[in-house]
Design brief:
Elements: E1 6-10, H1 12-25, E2 34-38, E3 51-52, E4 62-63, E5 67-70, E6 84-86, E7 92-94, E8 106-109, E9 113-115, E10 124-126, E11 136-137, E12 148-150, H2 158-166, E13 171-175, E14 179-184, E15 189-190, E16 201-202, H3 204-215, E17 219-222, H4 230-240, E18 246-250, H5 261-268, E19 270-276, E20 278-279, E21 285-289, E22 292-297, H6 301-320, E23 329-334, E24 338-339, E25 345-355, E26 358-363, H7 371-376, E27 379-383, E28 389-390, E29 395-400, H8 404-407, E30 410-415, H9 419-431, E31 436-441, H10 444-452, E32 458-461, H11 473-480, E33 485-499, E34 520-523, H12 528-539, E35 553-554, H13 557-565, E36 571-575, H14 576-581, E37 585-599, H15 600-603, H16 609-615, H17 618-627, E38 630-631
Parallel strand pairs: 1-19, 14-17, 14-18, 15-16, 18-22, 20-25, 23-26, 30-31, 30-32, 34-35, 34-36
Antiparallel strand pairs: 2-13, 3-12, 4-11, 5-7, 5-8, 6-10, 9-10, 19-21, 21-22, 23-29, 24-28, 25-26, 25-27, 27-29, 32-37, 33-36, 33-37, 33-38
Helix pairs in contact: 3-6, 4-5, 9-17, 10-11
């Protein structure tokens, strides 16, 4: 294989330029060929030539209102005290859009005309004079014959088609839609709907990338999954490039032993770039084979999606001669510290909400394989390559993935994870699609700090104070000082050890976690569940060092349950509902309250009203108890 510029941290802009030069040298077309389509089939297409009006619109002077057509000069002097009377031959009754009768140059609205008898058979009484061309649409008012209606390179909208039809067009010359082929690769990849075993994954990437291509105006085809065999991959790639305008090869773009994309591109064509200074999405392949651009996308879904946005979408816009999509931008205050590696543009997905009149951005989990971060993101924060990150409270620029009107309705919840908040988010959206509950899991203590700093509306907390045995309230006093806050009871919930089905190790409680061979899965520092564990250990005189896995941290109860279900741990402290969700067994340890803390000034705001109403719903309470391990008797009760 020729020398590859892999892991050279090529900046994204330079990588795009290198790919463009390779396409020019490789005979790739600058623009796709044009084709003529009917107006009704042209929405979303891009014009391949200017659209000129072949007739004026309107094609004649037309009445702009229902009423009577008159000569403006005949109405001079009309007033409430000295009305003017027009005989039937001095006016014509017209409807909106009617051609103006000869000799008439103004229209009086029907409601401003008074008759002594039937219209057209009796004088019309006018109590106000009208100027010439009042309520008259002049010929060519909208567009005149030979006027430019639409330029080349314009993506056609519904209103453009209506205007073109009014200007005389019946069909338009547009660029052919780009054809994108998506080739998933990997021995471990299985088609959607196929059961997966250990080490196997579902082919979600090709589904996502094909959908992204269609959203960008392309025709997309998903090809059969190819195994990690260089010869087979080369044949599949060679066949695919003959039938598309862009080939996206999914996975195999890194430097592992089964990563062949860069080698195949170099052997069959030109390898322009292998590795860009972008996180996530570093191992990108850009090249050309037989006059067709080839993009090698990383196998992690977040990386693959970002790779499409940065590289594929601009290419598709170039091929059709259109402008790449531009996302609206806004300024936001960062909810927590964000570290970023030097030398790479770091693309971070965030959740957004308006708190106290300020837009707040909360970074989502950063892993390149965290598919849910794509689903939950409201915006993108790009940390430039030369910057190490941002501090909490810092103002940053955000590219919007949702409309500001939607974001302004968002209830921002930061703090401890609980499945009830997820259930509430779904129920609120079902009741009113405009309402979003966006919860970020940073632990109970982190939630109270975020509330103190004005970065959320609601903080979820279940912190146990070992000294008093009380939950939440002592920490509210310490963290929030004398601030006026309300504490609302959400639920009581059962916390215990999440263990494998049948509890094969026979664990009976926290004391058993120190037994040899027991692997524990912990929660992060600051989480209420971590505080509970440490309290239980102190009560028994146990040291954290005696527990195998104490340093292994997961951010949510579900993540703990997932680790146990996968056999990567034997036990983890968590809620019963998480154990039930994974079909695991549960060893009770305690029943604890889980509360929502909110600034008193916000508690009665219209934004939070849907949440409080939901907590009074019998149907919602029943749905919560169906999760298992919850008691809703006090749900919605204000305890401070």
């Amino acid at each position: 294989m020729p020398d590859s510029p892999f892991i050279r941290d090529v900046p994204a802009a330079r990588a795009l330029d290198a790919w463009r030069r390779a396409r020019e040298a490789g005979g790739c077309p600058d623009r796709l060929p044009a084709e003529r389509v009917r107006l009704e089939d042209a929405a979303g297409r891009v014009t391949a030539e200017p659209v000129w009006a072949t007739r004026s619109s309107p094609p004649f002077d037309a009445a702009g209102m229902d009423g009577i057509a008159v000569r403006a000069a005949d109405t001079l002097g009309a007033s409430e005290t000295t009305p003017v009377y027009l005989e039937p031959d001095g006016y014509d009754v017209v409807d909106t859009g009617d051609p103006m009768p000869d000799g008439r140059d103004a229209v009086v609205m029907r409601e401003h005309v008074h008759y002594s008898g039937a219209p057209m058979a009796s004088p019309a009484e006018l109590r106000a004079a009208v100027p010439p061309y009042q309520h008259v649409r002049s010929i060519g008012e909208d567009v005149s014959t030979a006027e430019l209606l639409l330029p080349e390179g314009h993506r056609l909208r519904a209103v453009d088609l209506a205007a073109a039809a009014a200007a005389g067009a019946t069909d338009l010359l547009v660029r052919r839609r780009p054809v994108v082929a998506v080739l998933p690769t990997g021995d471990e990849v299985r088609p959607i709907g196929t059961p997966t075993g250990p080490g196997e994954i579902t082919d979600t990437n090709s589904l996502m990338l094909a959908a992204q291509a269609r959203e960008a105006g392309a025709v997309a085809h998903r090809l059969p999954i190819e195994a990690d065999d260089p010869a087979g991959l080369a044949r599949a790639v060679g066949a695919a490039v003959t039938g598309c305008d862009l080939l996206i090869v999914v996975a195999g773009s890194s430097a592992g032993r089964d990563d062949y994309t860069a080698r195949i591109v170099a052997e069959l064509g030109t390898l322009a770039v292998h590795g860009v200074a972008v996180r996530p999405g570093h191992p990108v392949v850009l090249g050309v084979i037989d006059g067709t651009p080839v993009l090698g996308a990383p196998g992690y879904p977040v990386s693959a999606a970002l790779t499409f946005d940065i590289f594929a979408e601009p290419l598709l816009a170039e091929l059709t001669g259109s402008v790449p999509r531009h996302r609206e931008r806004t300024r936001a205050q960062l909810a927590r510290k964000l570290a970023s590696p030097l030398g790479m543009d770091d693309w971070v997905r965030v959740r957004l909400g308006v708190v106290g009149g300020t837009m707040v951005a909360t970074p989502l989990p950063r892993g390149a394989g965290v598919l849910t971060s794509l689903v939950r993101a409201d915006g993108l924060l790009v940390v430039p390559a030369g910057q190490e990150g941002h501090h909490p409270g810092e103002q940053v620029e955000i590219q919007l993935l949702r409309g500001l009107d939607e974001i302004e309705q968002t209830i921002v919840a930061i703090g401890s994870h609980d499945l009830v908040l997820d259930l509430a988010a779904s129920a609120l959206r079902a009741d009113d699609p405009r309402v979003t509950l966006a919860s970020s899991n940073v632990g109970s203590l982190g939630g109270l700090v975020a509330l103190r700093d004005g970065l959320c509306h609601v903080a979820g907390s279940h912190l146990l104070d070992p000294g008093t045995g009380e939950y939440t309230l002592p920490y509210v006093d310490r963290v929030l000082g004398g601030r006026d806050v309300n504490v609302i009871r959400l639920v009581h919930r059962d916390q215990g050890l999440i263990v494998a089905p049948g509890n094969p190790l026979g664990l009976t409680g926290v004391a058993d976690l120190a037994r040899p061979g027991v692997r524990y899965v912990n929660r992060q520092r600051g989480a209420g569940t971590r505080v509970l564990l440490d309290h239980e250990l102190r009560q028994r005189g146990m040291s954290p060092e005696a527990i195998d896995g104490y340093a292994r941290e997961e951010p949510t109860h579900l993540a703990v349950a997932a680790a146990v279900a996968a056999g990567r741990g034997d036990a983890g402290l968590g809620i019963m509902a998480a154990a039930r969700a994974f079909g695991l067994d549960f060893v009770p340890v305690t029943r604890e309250p889980y509360d929502l803390v909110v600034a008193a000034a916000d508690a009665g705001s219209p934004r939070l009203a849907p949440l409080w109403a939901l907590l009074q719903s019998d149907r919602f309470r029943a749905a919560v108890e169906d999760l298992g391990g919850y008691v809703t008797k006090e749900m919605g009760r204000r305890i401070r």
